[in-house]
Amino acid sequence: METRGLYPAVEPYAAHRFDVGGGHRVYVEEAGNPAGIPVVFVHGGPGSGITPVMRRFFDPGRYRIILPEQRGAGRSTPMGELRENTTWHLVADLERVRGWLGVDAWLVFGGSWGSTLGLAYAQAHPSRVTGLILRGIFLVRRSERDWIYQSGLHNLQPEEWERFVAPIPVAERDDILMAYYRRLAGEDSEVARRCADAWMRWEAVNSTLTPDPGLIASLTADSTVLPAARILAHYAVNGGFFESENQLLDGVDRIRHLPATIIQGRYDLCCPPVTAYDLTRRWPEATLHMVPDAGHSSLEPGITHHLISSTDSFAER
Predict the structure, then answer these.
(1) What is the pTM of this model?
(2) 197, 268, 298, 305: the active-site residue
(3) Using one digit for the tens of pLDDT, what is the confidence trace for 200-217?
(4) Which member of 48, 76, 112, 115 is catalytic?
């Protein structure tokens, strides 16, 4: 079977800035076919923003590709702002963008944190969703947060773990996440920047099956490292602002009628496969592709293949 690759690069045909309240303005790009099938790309992070490669998972002749940057992320302003920045603000922003762009309903496409927000949005507005394509599932449960930031992943990445915890005094390492958050959101800019560098390196080295120097350099870039790390920690310490650990699992019944494809790397370090498995046990109608030779990144060949195959299949349907 031929392995599918990304579509050719495509430039946006429109860009918008929408005032969503609370001093926030969100940036939105549109690419592809203005009369095509509407799809919203829900980016990860939170706090990471969008990049040109994200437009390339869709046939530009068949899709109207809508790429919003979430509050505080990318070109949305103010960068890194934590006030009035919760999952439910982001859900409301997506719904506002949909209305402002005159879209009746759209396909939801997201990975990692984008799978979290995509599920939250779909469960809040199921009538505005035509289907979901989700990758690297993250439900922000305590077990998942502990795996990444406290006890679990350090067993697989011991040398990188030492780099990650180095900025935190030993006496505070019983709650590394909160210790980081105090520093990232604190007033000492030098300490915050040092912690941001270590935090984002930890995120980067665990986002691919093997370390990607380019990704590490990108995620630790001077202009974005602190805002991105602050927002990530903000959402993590607050458990994604969900009312219960299993809120997204318990809400699946609201969207089980929608076509859904879930794509998961077998060796995903930051979003372990058990989470995707738990989701599909509650959602047996969804199609699960467990990619045997992949980690977390959407750009690993097996993940890319299934994402492109899924968007093509949805367009044909």
Answers:
(1) 0.96
(2) 268
(3) 999 999 999 888 888 888
(4) 112
